[in-house]
C-alpha cells in the first residue's frame, strides 16, 4: 500500500478541528506580536498558522460572519492587555470568540464542524493566555511619551531594537526605535528624540576603564 503524503497532509489541513486550532494559534500569535513588538517569533507564527488555516477555511463551508467575530476579538484582547479594564474587554472578546467558534462552519454534518470540547478548551486557554500577558505586560500609560520623559533620559532596551522594540525609561515601557542600527536587549540607551508615541534612542557606550 503506497503512502500518499500530499493526500494525508491535505486531509489533515481540511479537518475542521485542525483548521480551527491553526486559526486560534494565529490569533494568539497576532496578540503576542502586538503586545511584545520587536521579537519576530510571534509574527512568523501568525503568518504560518493563518496561511495553513486558510487552506481549510477556503475548502470547508466557512461562515464569514463567524470568522469576523473571532477576528474582532483580537483588538479587544489587545486593549485589555495594554490598558487593563478589569476583565471587561476580555469577557467581551471571549463572548465573540465563543460565538464565532460555534458557528464557524455551517454544515449539518457534525464531521465538518468544530468539536464543542475543543471550543471549550480554546476558550479557557485563551483566557489563561490573556491573563498571563496582563500579569507580565505593564499597563500602557495614558499620556504620550513627551509628557513623561525628555530627550537625554537614560533607560534600557527591554527587547532587541531592530530597529523597533521596547525600551524601559522612567519606570515605564515605551515603544522605542534605534537611530543607529540594531541594539541588543539589555543595552543602556539614551533618548535622542520623541515623536508621537515613538521614543528614538541610541546606545550608551561604556566608558573605558582606567588602567592601573
Q: Can you walk me through this structure?
A:
There is one protein chain. With 212 residues, the protein is of the alpha+beta class. The protein has two domains: 132 residues; 59 residues, OB fold (Dihydrolipoamide Acetyltransferase, E2P) (Beta Barrel). The protein contains six helices and five strands; from the N terminus they run H-H-H-H-H-H-E-E-E-E-E. It has a five-stranded mixed β-barrel with strand order 1-2-3-5-4. Strand 2 and strand 3 form a beta hairpin. It is elongated. It starts with a helix and ends in a 9-residue tail after the last strand.
Question: What would a concise description of this structure say?
Answer:
With 212 residues, the protein is of the alpha+beta class. Helices cover 49% and strands 15% of the residues.
